[in-house]
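Key idea: predict the complex, not the pieces.
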Amino acid sequence: MRQLVSAGANPALAKLDGFAPLPEADRALLRAITAEHRWVTPASDLIRQDEPAEGAFVVLEGFACRYKLRRSGMRQITGYLVPGDIGGLDAAALAWSDHAVGTLSPCRVARIAPETVGALHARPGIAAALRISGAVDAAIAREWLVSVGRRSAPERLAHLFCELHVRLQAVGLVSEDGYPLPVTQIDLADTAGLTSVHVNRSLQDMRREGLIELRKRRLRILDLPRLRALAEFDPAYLQLTGRETA
Amino acid sequence: MRQLVSAGANPALAKLDGFAPLPEADRALLRAITAEHRWVTPASDLIRQDEPAEGAFVVLEGFACRYKLRRSGMRQITGYLVPGDIGGLDAAALAWSDHAVGTLSPCRVARIAPETVGALHARPGIAAALRISGAVDAAIAREWLVSVGRRSAPERLAHLFCELHVRLQAVGLVSEDGYPLPVTQIDLADTAGLTSVHVNRSLQDMRREGLIELRKRRLRILDLPRLRALAEFDPAYLQLTGRETA
DNA sequence: CGCCTGCTTGATCACAGTCAAAAACGGTGG
DNA sequence: CCACCGTTTTTGACTGTGATCAAGCAGGCG
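Result:
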């Protein structure tokens, strides 16, 4: 069994090392990156839409999301960033970002300078881990597309809750009964392609069914098997099964 | 101005070289890959869902798509592969595929053996081009998510037509009045998260508006500015502007 | 010519959106 | 501790986009 890095201390290292075991030099580089960090208030942009990008970043604590805005102001959230996730890598590749990244809750974030991004790709071990991470992100995006295109409102929410359950488990943020979910129903609506009114009613249905409970920015999962069945959820695509957490 | 490789002859090389100019050795490797190819009939799978992957492939002619099936048989198409596109790279990274890739029309396809995939990533120039290509694919997926989540039926179709217009232009498949679109209205429905009935009615509306015409597997664009306005389409995210084609 | 697939049309239905307002919650400051 | 404020959640009445069901109509191809 591999030695465990405290996921709480450096979730990004734990995540990448879990995809592909890294030599000590690579691990040291990743540790150095996360040495310096800052707190960011909720609802602030880490990357702005349609602007040149300056480097990338790692989320160490809190929830952030990728999103796009239409001219009318309509918002579509296209992905969540949870502790351990790296954002802005594709923006770095293109030197420009087609979408924004904003915080949903207070976030502790470590910046990765553009030169450092290059240094990461230059190390074969890290490069391979980042490729896997990118492939998983693409798989998540596909699953979201299935949700929005071909699942009912409760099914979409159930699938999202199952996805986050597995991802947060991998970084030790899930306890017996559930996990923190510091997002509003408006955020959930913009995630699932619904209105907040409809999200509210769907959540009440799910609660009445004894599946979940969402109160005080925390999701309690009351019946995981039935929740997964409702979403037709199979965690294989996240490549996180069988991980231990600190 | 850089020398032009006949896009018709090797669209994948043209595409990657356009993202990041490649040294001759890299170009030779890419040419070698596409030396051998085979024809595949429509509606056949190049990669099957939930199965281990064996290498990747390049589409040289024809249309293919990534898709996922629900247990009920409902299908969601998550991306199109047109000439020059490489498929199965993420499946190679994970040694397993969460989604299927199937042909929409007859396709000419070149196989890339697993060892060759490794050789591609080992070359810094190709690796960088593939990273950019992956970032563009992610941007396309985000745009689709916005479509399905936050755009009306005609807007979704308009956006898809605009996307394909730019992508096919980059490989020289667009003529004065339009481009080949060898897909059924059922395929379009599974792309846009609609039913084929609704796609049919939306297409008729767009035709009546003088925007497009879709007949005999060919899309004619009658009013590109208005089509783009309807979709709020900005081609920047495709990173293909200002390319010349053979 | 006949069949199959894909396109078109019509009638009806339901899921989700819209609009509007009230209630609950969570901070903040007095 | 409580009054106040903005945000978030909840509720109700109504509307509409897009789904469903079902049938007819090309058009391509053997």
